[in-house]
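User: My instructor asked us to take a sequence, write out its structure as tokens, and then describe one feature of it. I'm not sure where to start. Here is the sequence I was given:
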Amino acid sequence: MNPTALVYSSHNRCEYLHTQWIVERALQSHDNKTLMYLPWSESGNGGEFGSPQQFGWGKFEWYLNRFQQYGLHSEPFYYSDHMSREDAQLFFQKLATTEVVILGGGNSSLGLSRYKGVGEHFFGDRDLFQRILNDRAARGKLTVGFSAGADQLCSILQSEIYSDLSDPVGFGLCHNIITTLHHEPQRNQELEHGARKFPHTMIFGLPNDSGIAVNQGFLPSGNIWQVIDFITDESWDISGEEFHIKTRQGAGIDHFYNDGRQWSFQGGDKMVRVMAADSSWQDAWIFTSHGQCYHYNNQERGNFSSVSEVLSHY
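Assistant: Let's start with the prediction itself. The structure tokens for your sequence are:
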């Protein structure tokens, strides 16, 4: 049961997260070792040399090129105000068929408006991008969100914690989740505030270099199931950059309950979550990397031994 969404925060291209969780998913395919990077959240038009979109792709291109020898075909698809209908058709065709798609960094609201707007402008369907993402997930393909892209794959944009955005709704591949990026303990107040403002969601502060990988679907009961893998990566060891990589300093993924309690997740931990479709009810269990099981609400030890065992009870 592979995750179908991955959202993460990183300072650079840390090896474990980018190779094992992203590139390997594309290389696992026998006949479709493809990866597409979308710099649509960066300003500007197209991929002209030196443009923000081209610069965003360049931060990934050098790393992904290392895997050409193993058959990886990686490419960007640039946004332009001058896109034709044929360009849009090609874009949505690639979005549907590419094995791994990365939504890149930049401005979350700008990218969100472009992803939604291109479907509305050319096909009269503002939800086309999201529907294709959901179809990708149903077919087991991985969609990745880096920086702004991480924000967009969640249910609510991080900025909505303190703001009142005109369109704060993300694509929901990480259902009822909010993430904050480049998290540090000094920003815990933001997590606390977000947890109180959106009690039906779970909010996670992702430090550099960390992420969450999510798989979700519907149970026969009609409830939504969700499995979250917590990832911390200490592999990036370039001299002079360690200050930016908080996981190498022992940071975990911070989480606040809507009643003010706190939990810190470490790499290898899992959460199994069950939610009513209308978000009126939820329950969850935590499995630590050491094999311990805890009930999320009361933080007491549980007797479940696996994800499947938990889901069989709902």
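For the description part of your assignment, you could build on this observation: The mean pLDDT is 95. Try explaining in your own words what that tells you about the chain.
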